[in-house]
Design goal:
Strand content: 25-35%
Structural class: alpha+beta
CATH architecture of the largest domain: 3-Layer(aba) Sandwich
Number of strands: 10
Largest sheet: 5 strands, mixed
Strand order of the largest sheet: 7-6-8-5-9
Number of helices: 8
Shape: elongated
Number of domains: 2
Length: 203
């Protein structure tokens, strides 16, 4: 289970199909919460780490955004689009430094949490860019002169507007997905398949 915005929506969805445990809430300091009767163990971790826990089999299944799946390049099964946590990845620049065409930004610096996705996008358009990996407020990049643009996730666009940035191109849409470890999916197929079926019913 990812901490942050997806946590509450994920737990509410799972509760509808009986997948829950006492004390399963984001403010809990426990990292692992179990429901022995239902044979469930919930691992609560940072968003960026969910894919690693699933890929390496520490967790059989997980819920995570499509953007994180693509950026991490993990080898997992993507079982279901859960439909919530809608956002999109885009490129934005300071309003007063817009250039006429996207290609005019070639050979400039991009601040981003998503260098893999950004590089694939720009390379596909024949653009060479310099990528600066940041983990905090990406919007700071062009404001302090670290980069000419950013590639980041946007939900409402409020943060962009407040910092005088403007989206110039959309790169990909993202929603929460149910993913599974490949070995677990084979060994525990019936249970995981039942989970998918139950989720489809409530969705």
């Amino acid at each position: 289970m990812p901490k942050g915005k997806l946590f509450g929506l994920s737990t509410e969805l799972l509760k509808k199909i009986g997948w829950t445990a006492e004390g399963l809430h984001e403010k809990s300091r426990k990292l692992i919460i179990t429901n022995d009767e239902a044979r469930l163990k919930f691992i609560i971790t940072k968003t960026a780490d969910v894919t690693a826990y699933v890929e390496y089999g520490a967790a059989d299944v997980g819920i995570i955004g499509k953007d994180v799946i693509v950026e991490s390049g993990v080898d997992v099964y993507e079982l279901l689009d859960l439909g919530f946590g809608k956002c999109h990845l885009m490129m934005a620049v300071p309003k007063n430094k817009k250039r006429p065409r996207l290609e005019d930004y070639s050979h400039t610096r991009v601040a981003t949490k998503f260098p893999r996705i950004a590089e694939n996008f720009f390379a596909g358009r024949g653009m060479q860019m310099e990528y600066i990996k940041l983990n905090g407020s990406i919007e700071l990049g062009p404001i302090v002169g670290l980069s000419e643009s950013i590639v980041d996730i946007v939900e409402t666009g409020t943060t962009l507007r407040e910092n005088n940035l403007e989206e110039i191109v959309s790169i990909m849409d993202s929603t929460a997905r149910l993913i599974a470890n490949r070995v677990s999916y084979r060994l525990k197929f019936e249970r995981i398949n039942n989970l998918v079926t139950d989720l489809k019913t409530v969705l």
